[in-house]
Design a protein that fits this description.
Low-confidence stretches: none
Mean pLDDT: 96
Shape: globular
Largest sheet: 5 strands, mixed
Structural class: alpha+beta
Helix content: 25-40%
Strand order of the largest sheet: 3-4-2-1-5
Order of helices and strands: EEHEEHE
Number of helices: 2
Radius of gyration: 14 Å
Length: 111
Amino acid sequence: MTRAVLYRDRSGKLTGFSVRGHAGYAEEGSDIVCAGISVLTTTCVNALESVAGVKVHLRGGEDGFLEAMLPQNLDDMQMHDAQVLLSALHQGLSDLADGYPKYIQLSVRRG
Protein backbone atom coordinates (compact mmCIF):
# COMPACT_ATOMS: atom_id res chain seq x y z
CA MET A 1 0.00 0.00 0.00
CA THR A 2 1.15 3.53 -0.73
CA ARG A 3 0.81 6.03 2.08
CA ALA A 4 0.50 9.63 0.94
CA VAL A 5 0.59 12.55 3.36
CA LEU A 6 -0.12 16.19 2.62
CA TYR A 7 1.18 18.71 5.12
CA ARG A 8 -0.57 21.92 6.20
CA ASP A 9 0.78 24.73 8.33
CA ARG A 10 -1.13 26.24 11.24
CA SER A 11 -2.88 28.70 8.94
CA GLY A 12 -4.17 25.85 6.76
CA LYS A 13 -1.84 26.33 3.79
CA LEU A 14 -0.42 23.24 2.15
CA THR A 15 3.33 23.08 2.67
CA GLY A 16 4.29 19.84 0.93
CA PHE A 17 3.71 16.12 0.65
CA SER A 18 5.30 12.72 1.04
CA VAL A 19 4.57 9.33 -0.48
CA ARG A 20 5.98 6.00 0.57
CA GLY A 21 5.46 2.40 -0.45
CA HIS A 22 4.29 0.56 -3.50
CA ALA A 23 0.57 0.22 -4.11
CA GLY A 24 0.63 -3.50 -4.86
CA TYR A 25 -2.28 -3.31 -7.29
CA ALA A 26 -0.35 -5.27 -9.93
CA GLU A 27 3.18 -6.43 -10.60
CA GLU A 28 5.89 -3.82 -11.09
CA GLY A 29 5.61 -2.17 -14.48
CA SER A 30 1.87 -2.86 -14.73
CA ASP A 31 0.61 -1.15 -11.57
CA ILE A 32 -1.81 1.60 -12.64
CA VAL A 33 -2.19 2.91 -9.09
CA CYS A 34 1.57 3.41 -8.68
CA ALA A 35 1.70 4.96 -12.14
CA GLY A 36 -1.09 7.38 -11.24
CA ILE A 37 0.63 8.40 -8.00
CA SER A 38 3.93 8.86 -9.83
CA VAL A 39 2.38 11.03 -12.53
CA LEU A 40 0.53 13.20 -10.00
CA THR A 41 3.51 13.75 -7.71
CA THR A 42 6.08 14.25 -10.47
CA THR A 43 3.83 16.68 -12.32
CA CYS A 44 3.21 18.61 -9.10
CA VAL A 45 6.94 18.95 -8.35
CA ASN A 46 7.75 19.89 -11.94
CA ALA A 47 4.93 22.44 -12.10
CA LEU A 48 5.92 23.96 -8.76
CA GLU A 49 9.34 24.61 -10.28
CA SER A 50 8.45 25.49 -13.89
CA VAL A 51 5.08 27.22 -13.46
CA ALA A 52 5.22 28.70 -9.95
CA GLY A 53 8.97 29.32 -9.89
CA VAL A 54 9.31 27.50 -6.58
CA LYS A 55 12.39 25.40 -5.87
CA VAL A 56 11.04 22.70 -3.57
CA HIS A 57 13.10 20.79 -1.03
CA LEU A 58 13.16 17.20 -2.30
CA ARG A 59 14.07 13.95 -0.62
CA GLY A 60 13.73 10.52 -2.16
CA GLY A 61 14.80 7.01 -1.55
CA GLU A 62 13.85 3.39 -1.51
CA ASP A 63 10.37 1.92 -1.22
CA GLY A 64 8.89 4.58 -3.50
CA PHE A 65 9.70 7.37 -1.04
CA LEU A 66 9.36 10.96 -2.21
CA GLU A 67 9.01 14.07 -0.09
CA ALA A 68 8.60 17.61 -1.43
CA MET A 69 8.36 20.62 0.88
CA LEU A 70 7.92 24.28 0.05
CA PRO A 71 10.67 26.69 1.08
CA GLN A 72 9.89 29.38 3.65
CA ASN A 73 10.62 32.45 1.53
CA LEU A 74 7.78 32.45 -1.03
CA ASP A 75 6.25 35.68 -2.26
CA ASP A 76 2.46 36.03 -2.42
CA MET A 77 2.17 34.97 -6.08
CA GLN A 78 4.39 31.93 -5.61
CA MET A 79 2.39 30.91 -2.53
CA HIS A 80 -0.87 31.30 -4.42
CA ASP A 81 0.38 29.20 -7.34
CA ALA A 82 1.84 26.59 -4.98
CA GLN A 83 -1.51 26.30 -3.20
CA VAL A 84 -3.32 25.74 -6.50
CA LEU A 85 -0.85 23.05 -7.57
CA LEU A 86 -0.78 21.28 -4.20
CA SER A 87 -4.59 21.43 -4.04
CA ALA A 88 -4.75 19.79 -7.47
CA LEU A 89 -2.40 17.07 -6.16
CA HIS A 90 -4.66 16.65 -3.13
CA GLN A 91 -7.68 16.22 -5.41
CA GLY A 92 -5.91 13.67 -7.62
CA LEU A 93 -4.60 11.61 -4.71
CA SER A 94 -8.01 11.77 -3.03
CA ASP A 95 -9.69 10.49 -6.19
CA LEU A 96 -7.20 7.60 -6.39
CA ALA A 97 -7.70 6.78 -2.70
CA ASP A 98 -11.48 6.75 -3.18
CA GLY A 99 -11.22 4.48 -6.22
CA TYR A 100 -8.52 2.16 -4.87
CA PRO A 101 -8.81 2.23 -1.05
CA LYS A 102 -6.88 -1.04 -0.61
CA TYR A 103 -3.86 0.39 -2.43
CA ILE A 104 -3.47 4.02 -1.37
CA GLN A 105 -4.07 5.73 1.95
CA LEU A 106 -4.19 9.54 2.02
CA SER A 107 -3.94 11.71 5.11
CA VAL A 108 -3.47 15.38 5.86
CA ARG A 109 -1.30 16.45 8.80
CA ARG A 110 -0.97 19.85 10.42
CA GLY A 111 2.17 21.28 11.89
